[in-house]
Fold each of these.
Amino acid sequence: MLCEGVTSIVRIIMMRYSIEDWLWRGLFSGIAVLLLIVGTMSSASARTFGPAMDRFLQDYKKAWESPSPARLLRLSDDPGIFLDLVALDRWDYLASSKVIISDVQYETHIRNELVLNLTRQQHDLFLQGTFSSGQVHERLVLRPSRGTLRVVEYRGARSGVRQSAVAKTWASKRAAERTLMQAMNALVRHDVTSCQEKLAQTFARVNPQLESLPEPFDGKNVVKANAYYVRAACRTLKRQEDGGDITESDLTDLGTAITLYPNHLLARLLRARLLMEQSRTTDTSGTVQRLMLAKSDLEVIAKRYPELEDAASLTTLVEAVLALSAKQSLPDHQRERTRLLGLLFNAQNEIAGELLTKLGEPAALRRVAPEILAYASELAIADENPAKAKELLYLYGAHCDGCLGDPYLRARLAELEADTVSAMTLYSDIIGSDPSYRDAVWRYTKIALERSDEVRKDALRRLASVSSRLPRYERRVLGLIVALATHSRKLPALIDVLAERFADVPLPPGVRLTLVGGLQRHALKTR
């Protein structure tokens, strides 16, 4: 079914694929694209195919401008040609792109077909704040059809020039870009030595490359921000390998990255983690200030990209520690609260079930530190311990007195116990009170799409009734989901709906993966 898994959330800290792997395959997309076409073609080709070629290049441009692969699929009568491109999970993380296409040439004619060669330089900005840059030489085989040109074969990088997309082969005039991209790739591979060696050139005392780094994203400082972020991330990786304390240099670099590009969410997440760790290992005089800064970073992430891995659970943890820290001056149970704070500061290094055991019995937590009952309940759910979760949630519900966190966690528990009816009811109540409660919206939708047609229709009507109060992203994606639920499930119809009505709406990972499955089945049938 095309709607199965339609709202599954892919979580990520760094890209699973190396940047170089993406680039040599020529697999790019974008939102804001600058197209520059230069090159040569025969006069006969220009007369015969000129207008059609102009239209094709404009459509190709729009396809790569789109955050969805739907427009790309419509460039061919056989959408399976682009299967490998649609299968890349990079589509799930794009914020915007800038592309320069050059060196457009018609290579030859084969059975009234054109072999089109072009060079594409690509700069992709991702939702997490990172970016990728590269250059690829592409080859497409086109066939005239009713006044248009249709793609009959996509060959990706041209034979013999594939290496041009690999950063280490870039020309000397791109040395600064090349060095930073190599450092970023080394970070993805957890190659600390290579990462630091490359960054030594970027931040060299004599002739540093930092100031010569070009900025492809207009009005932003993405590239320099990433240089500082990568240096802090490499240092953190090195410290994890060798041991040692956090240095102010790490926090300074992350602060600089965030100042240069406030939407660098990975920099904010890493800073929040380091601030939590620093609060554990240093004196308590600045603890509250550090935790407030961490909470501020996590709030920005929640607004911009709430699916970022571990950000939500870290937010709950920081809030629990802040609440507990505020009571440290009280004389009663001070020793026990100090013990609990020590456990929470070290929680990022603990397994959920083991930490839950160390926190102690629920009744004792209710007496000494009711502020951490929500976090303890989440631990029990993560540990798949419904008995302990029920005990904790009973106490948490009495403590929080009508807060939305109570029904949300009870709905999560109902999901754990496969009680989807109760979970849907609880999520529905939350959505009615606060449609901006994103995780409740997505969990409710996911359950509904896995139920019967009648339940699914009722749920979609429920969502439609509050759609005007939903955040913009959820409103657009839910519109897409409703359309898919009410249209033909056949592949051509699905592609038409996506391209005509939702070309500028990023596909939820579940929808994209469903599309990939349809393309794979199509490819098997046409072999």
Note: The domain at 19-169 is CATH 3.10.450.50 (Nuclear Transport Factor 2; Chain: A,).
Amino acid sequence: MRSYFFLLLFISTVSVSQVRFQKTIAREKTESQKGYTDWAKCISQTEDNGYLVLSTFGLLKLDSIANLQWIKNYTGSFIKKTPEKKYLIAGNTLGFDYINMALIKEDGRAVWKNEYVASSSRIKVVSLKVTEDNYYLVVGWLGGYMFIFKANFEGYIAWSKVLNIRIGDVESKNELQIDEATDGSFFIAGKAFSIRGFTNRNLGFVINIGKYGWMNWLKTYEFETETGKRENLSLEFITATKDGGFIGTKGITLYKFNKKGNNEWVRHAKFVPHTRQIKQFDIIETLDDGIAAMSRTREYYSDIYMVRLDQDGNTYWARTFGGGGIEYGNFLLETNDKGFIIAGITKVGDKHSDIDISSIYLSKTDENGNAGCTQTVMKRFAYKDADYKVIGREFPRSFIINLELNQYTIIDRPKKDPKFGKRKDVIVEIIDLCN
């Protein structure tokens, strides 16, 4: 039987009816989990204004201020709310032998569990979308090519297609983004190794397919770099807009397209603290027809950057979130109170050092991007002669407290020190930086 140890760290502020907090959920890993990063992959808001968080090691149910209510042994990469107020989970097996899917109720009980298997190839889900006509669409990798299937909420497949678009091998990222247009068709953006026999590694493309899987159009785009060179445009995230078109992102740049895939405008997000090598992680259309986007503040050792724009790409506000560690945002969701919640990871240390602490990170904001103050996790290590706590990391240094001597120690790129012996994780403790 697998056991978990949880500590929830939070500051919660209520402004009118909007809840704000930044929280870290730290879990002690079992022996089989050590070496794997614990992070929030996807999040969905529940009918009681709580949250279902799909993480590396299970599904967490939280209340409206992120207090833990239960954990279930569901794993995957996506969780989506259905029109019947149930929740669809999809993910891959370790060897990509089949796709795991489950439909669950809000209390975590399974309605059904399915496995989708390819007869002569490995298979991988890359994107999941709940459709307006009460179905769901799976986009993924099958034998090197893009596949799509549409199924109902009883798990039965209505139709499936394999497209003549090669998207690399199963171990590559195979990034494919999907959203539903107002006419019931679908926009899919990604990178291809070849399209209809034309080979060009990492060729960015966008396709539009009808509700029955037939391709309406396929587009590739070019953009001009700072040096004046024209290169292929590979959109990293897309979101459909209420005018029938869509918006895509590349770094901090937003591109607006109409329903036929023709470019209408280009905008650069303002107030970006670090523009070099920024990667966009998520983009959504908001309830007021505007845009919210999220990224890192820099390529490595970053905080989370979020920007709010109007429907024409003009910036309203921008915010950064994070504490003493390294924070990555992985999923952005607009909440019922018109605020936002970011789900991701916070880390102290890295895989190249003996100190590597990863925890689930959540930030709930109001509609203006305010999330309260920041808190962090402190991890205690048992040494031969003394106990130490990691309190933060500013590359390449880790800041350590000696609990017995009550003093700080700074270690450059810490390694196993013969003086202290091998380190051992023993407990997670809380430090509230808001006081």
Note: The domain at 6-377 is CATH 2.120.10.30 (Neuraminidase).
Amino acid sequence: MRVIWFLLIWFILLPLQASAAPVTQAQLSEKEKAWIAEHPVINFTGDPDWLPYEAFSKDGRYLGIIPEVLRIIEQQTALKFNVIPTKTWDESVSLLESGKADMMTVSDAWNDPKYLYTRPMLSSPIVIVMDRDHSYIESVYYLQYDDIAIVKGYRYVEQIKKKYPDYNFHEVKNIQEGLEGVATGKYDAMLASMALATYTIETLQLNNIQVIGKTEFSIKILFAIKKEMAPLVDIINKVTIDEKQAHELLKEWTYQKYVEKTDYGLIAELAILLLVILFAALILYFVFKKKSQKYQQIKNLLTRTNSEVDDAIRYASLLDTPDLLPSDEISTFFDDSFLVSQHGKIKSSTLIHFTELDPDKGLLILVDAKGEHINGVLNSLFCKRVLKRVIDQVKARKLDADPAAILGSLEKELQHQLGEADAQSRPNTIGFDAAVAILDKAASTLLYAGANIPLFYTQDHEVKIASADTHSIGSGNTRYTNHIIEISDTTDFYLLTNAYIEQIGGKEVLPAGKRRIKEILKKYELQTMGTQRDTFVKTLQPSKGKQPEMGDITIIGFRVTL
């Protein structure tokens, strides 16, 4: 953690790090030396209240990182700076405009054509500050439902607003107002330079917030110089700061720790390693298959390899076990319910989530990840990450509790996660089927939308189906259809993964199919949920073991009585 923090903070002084030996007066041109001899003292002013970059104390002392930069410039060029204290930023600007100051510190937002500008002397990344309950956030993209504070006037503000035009930005007068707003809950997040944010958090003792991510934007600090002093620009541009000097500046003026990003590389590396092992074993098998004296040896090798692959798959599934809904959690909200989950040798690639949005409203989501064996497990880990992002927004009331909107947000989130990968590097099986149901007891309605997972329900002694849209999450299509089901009496609802519908079994050795499922529901509609569960399981048992499994089977049944 400490190493990562220093690497991130080090970016503040990145432009100052030298690629060669520090510049000395001997490395200046004769013309530049002569100019310095004619202008040995440079009148300088800065921002009186911009720590950690710079500030003037009440007694006129010049504080911050920029004073140290000026000291280094003096050492390398023989220039001397006469620092003129001010009490306000407008006063500093007035000194430069009147010619009483030759040079002043500015950010890259300052682009007045009346002046010349040096190269950036400091470059600080724009970071995301939120409360300490948040984990790492890797992009402004994930703040789309948040209220975001941002200091007006900086160049990066317009860049961010241009890239994210529909986000909820709130301009504040200064860094203190924004950070205190995050600390008190007025704002969800703040975007500010790392140096300014970390220093101010420490100074104000805001212990409940921290830097939790870095953006692709940055702020650059440079010097504005009046045009009459044009040679000064090239002289300052030749100044460099070595690693030791940069470290000392960093150590004195930065404090805050940085939330570390979770490393998902291990999972990908494991998958690649397993594929290499399996591929090598297959090559050996085909090369030596016809050689009888080697056949048994290769067979044993394949047996061991298969066992190792199975063990590795189980290990991969344990890295981030998919959520299965505890039976008591759903039963406390619904009048009666059951859950069936059957899978192969490894963990299920099915994810189930239930959230009680309020005492009379519950959200149920069923996700069935694509792929088999290790592909299914790894895909389910990816899908779980996508699902968690969207569920967090629903829980925070920043995304409407609307099934079709939730499915659309899952699609957008998945595409964003894959956004940086080119088409050839994307897995073929990435994506998942899903169903979202929201029961509102107060309104006596159930709202449903599905991506390849239909909703079966029995009402008034009739079995009905709310059809799902036929495109999965991962197809690129963000439009899904809501179905509103009015509940006036006892109604039973069922969500089934396609593996059950397509699984061959039963005495007739036929797929379950929607017709057979409707027959089961019709026959047992008045029975308890437990009895119905046993019936679903027994339907495929006589010959399921003799037929290839179509995938992980998950069935959720719940009863609503109003």
Note: The chain has four domains: 2-122+220-253, 123-219, 265-318, 322-560.
